Amino acid sequence: MRSMVQWVLGLLVIAWVPPVQAQPGGWKAGVARAVATPKTSVWLAGYGTKRPPDGKLHDLWIKALALEDPQGKRAVLITSDFQGVPKEMSDRVFAQLKSKYQLERDQIMITFSHNHCGPRLGLDLVDYYPIEDEQVRLVDEYTSEMVERLVAVVGESLQKLAPATLDQGEGKATFAVNRRDNREAEVPDLIARKIPLKGVVDHSVPVLRVTGANGQIVAILFGYACHPTTLSFTTWCGDYPGFAQLLIEKNHPGAQAMFVNTCGGDQNPLPRRTVELCEDYGRQLAEGVEHALKQPMKPVSAKLRTAFRYVDLAYDHVMTRKELETFSRDANAIRQRWAVRMLKKLDGGEKFSSTYPYPLHAWRLGNEMLVVGMGAETVVDYALRFKREFGPGTWVCGYADDMISYIPSRRVWEEGGYEGGSNLFEYGRPALRWAGDIEDRIAGGVGELVKEVGAASLRAGTFDPRKAEEMRRQSVQR
Ligand SMILES: [Zn+2]
Question: What pTM does this model have?
Fold first, then answer.
């Protein structure tokens, strides 16, 4: 008679199943895309005027990259040629993705390039534009259509999940200029005279290559920190990221090129305003990507961890009815429309919150890559800071999930000016300015998320755990 130990061992042997043959790279990846170019005359977004479209240079796109690790953990990154996706729109997408595909908020990031040759969406920058009933209807219709399309593209990317390898590298492109520290009119002359431009920039071009089991490149994801504001005309196109994606897809037939705006809130492509310059910046960016692809790239091991939270960003001072009444007679048309709209909200019984829920993501890919996703128009300081704190392999993507406003660092907040000063009315917030602790609140949230995904090993971070804990208590999961 066998002993109990032998019996248990026997069971274990029966229960042991040889591991499934390791897939190439261990990852699964799937991509999908859909055209987003409006068919109606919804206006172009972003310059504070009425801009009906007059045709297109090339199509606008929504693109998705789905990733799955060997444990079945999934995440989907959406990139798009949109100018700004407002919260009320992305929340509709998140709700549908949860019910249709069981994707939680930490597993999905909706990014937009901030392309100023892209269409209006929902209430994004709504006070920027004169009110015309027909336009309100067109924007509503187009927004709903895009919600459905985003959900469909994510579904398709999940369906297409197939074995893949991931590698990352970095290139460089130098056309982004710190627009706070250089006068636009002087830039061409300074460049011609080889006088260095002023201010902080992030000229790195992070690249992630996704290769299928047959060796075919499936996706090339790349980033750059700069406003897609080369052009200000009324013709649909993706501005410099649109041209860069087209060129990369031409260089790599069958691959889907995808662009994320890293932290380009205070960066402009200068000089600008001609299609030739726009195409040239696209070419420079594509060359940065090609350079990275030609170097030995770093394989990304197949393990995925994701985390998400809202951090409450405090306003400096919430508007009172009296202040809004004064602004409702303002000579500035945007501020006047904003004040009137805010007063209507107060009349309807709405109480303004003293904070705004700011979305933050951390995705850890293997031990080699950390993606920090940040809402809105983050200035370049954030990318430089988090890359320094979390080390090589860190991507810091702005323009995720919600357009909100500019997100100044403490430095930019102290300096004031367009990105750091009293401009929140342009974005429809019930205040003029963020409180001065904005960077601390964000850094606290990011530090916590990075801990959650266990990415501190990229390099030990310098965040203060006590401070981060305090921030965590202040932040509310919504
Ligand atoms: Zn902007």
Answer: 0.91
7 Cα: distance to centroid of ligand 1 (angstroms): 68
Rounded-to-integer distance, Cα 143 and Cα 323, Å: 32
Determine the pLDDT at residue 473: 46
Q: To which residue do tokens 């990105």 refer?
A: 419
Antiparallel, parallel or unpaired: β 406-407 and 267-269: unpaired
**Residue 325, in any domain of the structure:** yes
Report pLDDT digits (tens) over 303-326. Answer: 999 999 999 999 999 999 999 999
In angstroms, how far is the first alpha carbon of the chain from the final one?
60
**How remote is the CA of residue 83 from the centroid of ligand 1, in Å?**
8
State how many domains the chain has: 1
41 alpha carbon – ligand 1 mean position (Å): 23
Question: Using 50, 70 and 90 to split pLDDT, how confident is the model at 456?
Answer: low
Counts for the chain of helices (H) and strands (E), in that order: 13, 17
Domain carrying residue 343 = 319-347
Residue 439 has pLDDT above 70, yes or no: yes
Q: Ligand 1 center to residue 121 CA distance, Å? A: 15
CA of 302 to the centre of ligand 1 (A): 35
Beta 61-68 vs 74-80: how paired, if at all? antiparallel
What spacing in Å lies between the alpha carbon of 226 and ligand 1's midpoint? 9
CA–CA separation, 159 vs 32, rounded Å? 9
Taking the C-alpha atoms of residue 335 and residue 376, their distance in angstroms, rounded to an integer, is 20
Averaged pLDDT score across all residues of the chain? 92
Separation of 399 CA from ligand 1 center, angstroms? 9
Q: Which amino acid is at 337?
A: R
According to the model, what pLDDT value does residue 458 have? 57
CA of 402 to the centre of ligand 1 (A): 13
Cα torsion 268, 406, 441, 106 to 10°: value is -90
Cα–ligand 1 centroid distance for 473 (angstroms) = 31
Q: Is residue 339 part of a domain?
A: yes
Q: How far apart are the CA of 377 and the centre of ligand 1, in A? A: 6
* Cα 39 to middle of ligand 1, angstroms: 25
Q: Dmax over Cα atoms in the chain, in whole Å? A: 97
- Residue 334, in any domain of the structure: yes
Measured in angstroms, how far is the CA atom of residue 228 from the centroid of ligand 1? 8
In a domain? residue 64: no
From the CA of 265, how far away is ligand 1's center (Å)? 6
Whether a cis peptide bond, with omega within 30° of 0, leads into 271 is yes
